[in-house]
Write the structure tokens for this entry.
Amino acid sequence: MTFRMPRRQFLMGTSALAAAGAFGLRPAFAQDEALRLIWWGGQARADRTLAVADAYAASTGTTPPEGEFLSWNDYWPKLATQVAGGTAPDVLQMDYRFIVEYATRNAIAPMDDYLGGVLNLDDFDEDQLEGGKVDGKLYGLSLGANSVAMLVNTTAFEEAGVAVPDRDWTYDTMREIGEAFKAANIRGGMTGMSDGSGSEPMLDNWIRQRGKPLYTAEGKLGPNVDDMVEWFTMWNEFRDAGYINSAEDQALDTGAAEVSMVALNKAAMIPSNSNQLVIHQSINPDTLTITSYPRIAAGVGGGHYRKPSQFWSISGASQNKEAAAAFLSYFVNDVEAGKVLGVERGIPCSAAVRDAVAPTLSEQDQIALNFVANLGDLLGPLPASPPNAAGEIDTSLLRVLSQEVGFGGRSAEDAGKFFVDEATAILNRAS
Amino acid sequence: MSIGAHVLLIGASIIMLYPLLWLLSASLKPQEQIFTSGIWPTIDWSIDSYFRGWNGLRTSFSVFFMNSFVIAVLSVVGNLIACSMAAYAFARLRFKGRNFWFAMMLGTLMLPSQVTLIPQYVLFRDLGWINTILPLVVPKFLAVDAFFIFLMVQFFRGIPRELDEAAMMDGCSPWRIFYKIMLPLSMPVLVTVSIFTFIWTWDDFFAPLIYLNRMQDYTVMLGLRTFVDSTGESDYGGLFAMSVLSIVPIFLFFLFFQRLLIEGIATTGMKR
Amino acid sequence: MAVNAAEAAVPDAASGNSIWSRAWQNHAPGYLFLLPWFIGFFGLTVGPIITSFYLSFTDFDLLTPAEWVGVDNYVRMFTNDRSFAASMRVTFFFVIFSVPLKLAFALGVAVLLNRGMKGLPLYRALFYLPSLLGASVAIAILWRQIFARDGLVNDVLSIFGIVGPSWISNPNYSLWTLIILSIWQFGSPMIIFLAGLRQIPQDMYEAASLDGAGKWRQFVKITLPLLTPVVFFNAIIQTIEAFKSFTPAFIISGGTGAPINSTLFYTLYLYNEAFSFFRMGYASALAWFLLLLIACFTAFSFLTSKYWVHYDD
């Protein structure tokens, strides 16, 4: 018995109401052949995306694709409902965290059949193409590369009389910065950096510099107990010394930009992403910039990678897969489209588009573009797509443990062991 | 009443008002100062956010307000009719299985809506109602809001039985008793149901989020949520400006109807 | 349509004498008045509810067809799920403290506002304002402004030389800030109390004050007893709502139940299981356990209600 197709069962109980459907305000699913798109994002992203959709329709003489956009929090329950109901739009925006989940369950379709046909990816960055593959098949078309980056409040650094860290800075530099901010005591005790112990990207970056992935290609946990104990111990030292925010302050950060430690004026730096500079700058009167995550020791690199931040995927239930693929090809390759889209979703993955776009960018976008383009020795190999349960380990294990340690409810030794045991159990359950 | 009571009430009102003042002040500030400065408006305050917000999305907020208004009014009408009928049956009429059905009705209050969401979506899909306001409105005419039935039952049971028993003796049908005696005597609860239905429908975003796909069909609450996305550029100023405006209709509705709540009793004159 | 039939049914049936027609006369009006509800119940509600019950025995993940797993979900809930236990503790704590406080507050203010005092409509409206704000994004930001370390509460406390913690982000106090939020939005039960108070005949108070009964005595002897159906209603509804409470924690903790699961409400946990981790089958089992819990509580309340709730019938 399946749940996907209970059409008949439902109608038996509701035949009286079925007639009522006849006076629906408008015919449902009017088949005008327009592609349906759905993505998360704000109005700025929508304006750009829909302008490209309209331009595509004008150039091909087809009906303009219909777009729907929601905020991140609203997007996932709605998409899941639509997939379960078989009404998902033809083209949907996908996240690195969920692509395996959706691909292994056929909610999104592989695009390999259209490669070389309507879908032209000759000019596409190889690592970004790899990032959209699940089990060797292309499920997601990267809409931009990003990299993790420290978001830095340069105004605060000037006030404290501390030099903004350059790309060679290390966790030891962190101690100096922490001391300097303590001594300067600006803005009611602003620290040099927020508590990064619960940040999955920061842990990922740190463990990669030690030569291990956070998750192996087989979907197993990379770090062992010793690694994790060292991780929590290091942050304990920072916290005890007052270099980073107290657990109480750190817990004010629930993930949104407006409650980050930088937005709240509680820290001069937070671990973030290259594409987050714009949103943080828009709500902060100080001058912000980005720099790399700290190195574990001078000269050690390889922690960063160019991460595909967002994908376009084709719905597994779509009746118009080929048309969708043709549209996506235009979306990522057309130079004019690229100029409209800018780097709002990340750095374009087609070299031609990237070259055309670069001169048109704003100051913050330039910073982000240059940062991602010039990672140099910081750049390591692209890791395998995270396993199904990665999201759960991040939100309900790492973040909770970091707070438990921060508030003193758990020792670093205990937390390290608990993390490895529990994460392994979650991974086993999900596979 | 004493001056002391007034002082107490004014003090309490200020605490109650604080959020609105904050919201108002946030809507008048330049975006980069919203989260870093206190409640008091800055020197360079402006009403730009209101203009930007009103037309900030692809569809203007006038459309969202209209949509919300239509849905809320239809919901009020539906709940008033359907829930009062059901409540009258449960409160006054005797029939086999009354207690059983009453328990079933209460039971529907208890299941968290998150798990019936998808089966319900599939059902409305099969009826061809997705992308229309029918999933939001038709259930109201079928009394699916058990809360209101239960509320009215409690009030109907407070109305003296002698009144409808006397009418029954005179040969009045249940229907006549219902609309000649019960409804007029129940003005306070009918007004209460109207107020709650209007406000809750207005504030609801989850059902519109799931069932409405096209922006020209969006409600105000859905429009508001579209302003801010944690992963990209967001218009907080527009959000707060439109949040202030979104409260205006429900506040006016409340102000107007709460007068009925008080006057209703005077005009019907409950005598016993 | 149904109502016309109800009206017509009675005279028709009255003309006959058989058992059937008497049965018709006795029971039909009730069912006819319930007709819209029956259509809604069987057409829109029962199907999804039964489906969710079925899904609670499956591994439904939203994206692929469900497969039967028997009672696995229920077993896991009680034997191998620390978050379940944590969310139970949070929810019970919330119910026990928020419901009585909110009701007492709502009743007190309603009684205070149910007078012929000048400017009362304005006060009523102001007191209802927080409830109008509902679950707006603004609430989350606002609550932080009030309950953070450098927030309004600590500013007031500092006048008395007290240095307060960051209430909202300290796991020892964070749940209390949500309880206060719930009490602060006391508008709905207040309105229901007000409507109940308006229904109490004024002449009863007049008679009582002629007998020399004071305000407090009138409240205890007249207001409270006549208000018990409404008190009962509010108590049951608020308890059910508190058990199902979702939005405050969802908005203020950003959906995580942080810090350290101290605000991990039951339905928040359920929502995350269903929509963040794609375990709708497990979430359905959680939902049915919650329903069982609330049903037991409600049944108990109804059983005891005959000792303290006074209806006119």
Notes: Chain C has one domain: 72-307. Confidence is low (pLDDT under 50) at residues 1-15 of chain C. Chain C touches chain A through 45 residues (CB under 8 Å). The radius of gyration of chain C is 25 Å.
